[in-house]
User: What shape does this take?
Amino acid sequence: MDAGTARTDAQAAFRQELRSFTKAHGTSQAVRALLDDPAGYDPAVWELMAKQLGLPGLIVGEEHGGSGAGAAEAVIALEELGAVLLPSPFLPSLLGTVAVLAGGTAVARILPAVTDGQRLALGGAELAGPGGEVSAAAGDDGGWRLTGQVPCVLDGAGASLILVVAGTGAGPALFAVPAGAPGLTAVALETLDLTRREARLSFDAVPAELASDPAQAAWLPRVRALAALAVAAGSLGGIRRCLEMATGYAKERTAFGRTIGSFQAVKHMCADMLVDLECTRAAVEHAAKVADRADETGPPGEAAAAELPAACSVAKAYASDAFVRAATTLIQVHGGLGFTWEHDAHLFYRRAFSDEQLFGDAAAHRAQLAAALVVPA
Amino acid sequence: MTGLDAYRQQVRAWLAEQAPAQGWLPAGPDGSADGSADGAATAADTLARARRAQAALFEAGYTGISWPPEYGGQGLSNREQVVFNQESEQYDLPVFPFLIGLGMCGPTVLSAGTPEQKERYIRPMLRGEEIWCQMFSEPGAGSDVAGIRTRAARQFDGSWLVRGHKIWTSGAQYCDFGLLLARSDPDSTRHAGLTMFVVDMHSPGIRIEPLRQMNGGSGFNEIFFEDVVLPPDATVGEVGRGWHVAIVTLMNERVAIGAGRSRGGSAMSAELAAKARAAGRDGDSYLMDQIADVYVREQVLKYLSEAVNEAVLAGRTPGPQGSIAKLFSTELGRRGNAAARQLAGSRAQAWEPGDAEAARQAQQLLSAPGWSIAGGTDEIMRNILGERVLGLAREPRPS
Assistant: This one.
């Protein structure tokens, strides 16, 4: 199996722990048992993910009970979980945590509960592209009220606290809304990816807590970039698994008296997947490095913060296209078996096309990069 | 500061001082491995400039960085070599004629040659005094090097008589020495019975004819061996083991080509974007998507080579990124050309006399098919990835 990259011994050990965990709990059987489950994940496994791996509080600072890890570790976790499609609230909670940390004003109020496994979700028209809008208005009591709609939010119906990007008169701001707040409606959606739960959220004057500093604007591009990177990191794991499954099958399956992997038509498909895997890995890990550097103070940190949106867009644009290619190739290599319900290939195919659209598809990220390219220096 | 940081500072300072003095320009958008620049290197002044640059590198100790000191190398590790590569990337060092010698022939002589050969050849190669080429391909032996028919017959006095026809040799017209792969056992087939030789390219009986490529350049040559006599000590490695020696050379070639193409960072997309803006086409979403795709791939190629460098610097074994880079870079080149054509419109096929920009683009377009063939075809590269990295079975040989 692909060893994966680890820049430090601690990262290598963390990856190894995750692999042991997914080997035990992320089997095809376990994943399939949850496909029809309304919650879509196994709470006992999520509890173990918290206890054994510290995943809910992975990037939460130690002062709030978290592990204080950075983007490099988050990317490792997302890659390993993405490789087995293990359903869990990890990604939505991580996205919510990223938003709270970037927003900066509600960290101490929200994040200690997250490290205990409280589930977050993150939504906003600003994040998902066109098709919805939420606006925030200051109420008579000095609090905020949200009105509008977000077309799809990962774990939007299951999370206990939802982070919402909403427009204020002074620009977009981050708000926290508890599940069950008056005026909040969550409608569970049908999902292409059966290992994910998504909901449409409607807000009708829902009371909300402000979680960002209206005077600061830098948090939103950071959240957008890191959300795209998080999805790309999961895609990286998916591509890796697609390649492993395809080559494994190409070595075993015989046709015309030889293994199908000895035919160049099949071999070259696998080689192209390897190219895509290594290119995605290079892009995702570079973006994670930039994200961690952006946390540092001083000019190097500022330079990294300025590079972060482009680095994450490169990763998301490449990873989304590459995962779609890998999952499609996976099915092709498996022939008739590849498009049966029994084979796991379709689960990766579903995940690939889900990842493609979440937090901006490849074309949207290329459009952002293009806009930056034509700005005169 | 670690020793490596100190080394980096030293390299940086030296380059900053030498570049203006030597007239080394900042690196341009095109790598030099496209076969168009090498034709120009035949000009005597270009060659003289290359020799001056290589001699300066040797004097300062920045060539053969990881090669053994007894033969003129610096005896340092690959880590210092990587540091030098990183620091020199931003300059267009005019040392193109030496790349095959330093990238392929030198490592082969060091790995398989005798102490006498190393003593004789390595130092002049490093100093830029002698230029090398490699002669493996033949009209009947391209991707399948084992189809070689050039014959090396051992004479009664131990010397070798060579007769045959080689092709696709870069820079043969100005080379002093070359590595020759020839069939030393007339009864052998395929990989057995091949031997590697070092050839003095000024020997009688060698006829070199430039090969005109579809892009109009003549960077490659055909070489005819008409009863060329090689001395008994011309063999590199054991007689009959030439294939094993050649593998070392070819592995070094692919790494050199992939690395060469990764130069220039995001230069191609930056140039395309600037032109799109100047032409008022920056609102054309199809064109801008193509340009951004070129940018994405340029970045990815850069990160791939950074990942290799980082692994070497940290003392880890690099992954397959080096082999992947060649395959990936040919695709990037094609996509860059597609965006450029989209931007140029009819000017891509007919341009005003003296429009150097349009002519250069046409040159790139006509060079692109060669990128996917020279130094290992895309298909051979995919076989290598599929078989050596992924462990898939080889095509069965006809019995």
User: Anything to note?
Assistant: Chain B touches chain A through 43 residues (CB under 8 Å). Residues 385 and 391 of chain B are 8 Å apart (CA to CA).
